[in-house]
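sorry for the late reply, my laptop died twice this morning and i had to redo everyting from scratch. anyway the thing you sent over, i finally got around to it. pasting the sequence first so we're on the same page, its 298 residues, then the predicted structure underneath. double check i copied it right bc i was rushing
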Amino acid sequence: SHDIQWIKAGLPGEGNFLVFNNGQLLYERTPQSYIFEINPFLDSTGNDTGYYVNPPDAGYWVWTPPPRTQKVKKNMSNQIVWIYNSQSNQGFFSHIGSGAHRLPNDNTMICAMTEGHLFEVTFGPGKRSEVVWEYINPVTKQGVKEIIKDHYPNYNGVFRAYRYGPDHPALEGKDLTPKGTITGREPDYITPESMTGLSDGADSLARFSLNQNYPNPFNPKTVIPYRLLDAGKVQLSVHNILGQEVKTLVNEFKSAGHHTIVWEGKDNLGNDVSSGVYFCSLRVADHIRTRKLTLMKR
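ok and here's the structure:
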């Protein structure tokens, strides 16, 4: 967990705290992040004692994962009074950084660092939470982008974000008139109907593919397969969870067809890398495909 926030007085759940649980588990193939609201005063019977109760004394219940998710059962604290997570693990996940805080409008704002994903969800214990709005940070390491395709983590990362009303003291006397968007484009209000089509560049992305490495998890080496429908310049590299390049595997012109490359768990200096999660990125022209690799040394 990379962030914990006390819920301020006057807000729903005041006195509780919100935990951003990154959910990065080496043994899960479908990891995802969670927001937990915890009342530290609850005892094993669910009564609010008015004083701190040690979590083991409050007890746990067993969470059984949905079928076909390759997740494991977990012990969940009886002090958890509200949980938020996306239906799909790909909808909300950040293995580092991030945060969440309760808003005066009773909603909860969430910042998922690695994908620059900011969004607000409705709050209510025992109720289904819904996304009110969401925003993808367009500022990247390569400047402002109108369209961000698959990239390694933190390409457009936001460590933490907060939402303040116009009455906040820091904004006193400031001109808050909207000046347009960062990209210069009109806001893109996405509806389920508009998500069925392909975005710009989708045809180019379909011209190559990066398949899952095998074995995965691996020790000490793994095979990374990829396919090109057209000959061209290829860059294939491995990055750590901070987005730093660890190893360049391919950086040359390649013919069309199926290819494989072996990564032996070493960096560009020939040193063995440590156990953990890595990301393999295949770049062809201006398009990137990424896969997650897990090195697990015994």
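The longest helix spans residues 55-58.
thats about all i looked at so far, will dig more tmrw
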